[in-house]
Amino acid sequence: MDELLYELRDGVAYLTFNRPQARNALTFAMYDRLAEICEQADRDRSIHAMLLTGAGDKAFAAGTDISQFRAFDKEQDALDYEARIERVLGALERCRVPTIAAIQGACTGGGAGIAACCDLRIATRSLRYGFPVAKTLGNCLSMNNYARLTALLGPARVKDMIFRARLIEADEALAMGLVSELVEDGAALARRAEELVREVASLAPLTLQATKEAIYRLRTKPEGGSDLVLMCYMSEDFREGMEAFLNKRKPVWKGR
Length: 256
Hints:
Low-confidence stretches: none
CATH topology of the largest domain: 2-enoyl-CoA Hydratase, Chain A, domain 1
Number of strands: 10
CATH superfamily of the largest domain: 2-enoyl-CoA Hydratase, Chain A, domain 1
Mean pLDDT: 93
Order of helices and strands: EEHEEHEEHEEHHEHEHHHH
Radius of gyration: 19 Å
Helix content: 40-55%
CATH class of the largest domain: Alpha Beta
Structural class: alpha/beta
CATH architecture of the largest domain: Alpha-Beta Complex
Shape: globular
């Protein structure tokens, strides 16, 4: 059984974490496959958006499979693990196309890190989000993950969540902007996620790419940006957008 299902359909990449018997806990192979797919999306201009979800109704992804930590016996093991996870999360965060996480149930540890790297998040009311490491493994997050979470939620909320080892539930997640929408159940989540990913995939690809990259740079290196302006304004898509607007027709985006 494939632990990470992947399908490309009509310009949308669909990824499903597929270990429902283990609440979709992530193996190293699953992390590596996620990075590969993100790198493919960077190269393949036919891909316009990506939708991530978890199999079953219990979890989006409940962190890294803890059994994989048993082999850790030296300092380099911990450093190598965090470097590996950062390579994956960095690939997802920097992926050229918009990414949407459709979350049902537990979204914890590594799964919560993946969701935080996505551009949009929607969830069912069964959502439980967090990093309860202070009462489970006693490990910590990487600096990059703390930075991502602080940019997303603010330092006070990150401390409250991690210091108390608590999971954020649906209504609170909506109120703090962690998720943009809530739906009642898995069937509604599948329908709404499909609508949302199709909506995003239909829009000007370079506009979305530039916005995503600009917001990333605000967190990491807040200066410059002329390359993004030129990418959009000098593109075929910009000319097409103008002509379509002036001629009162729908633009045909090419992403170049």
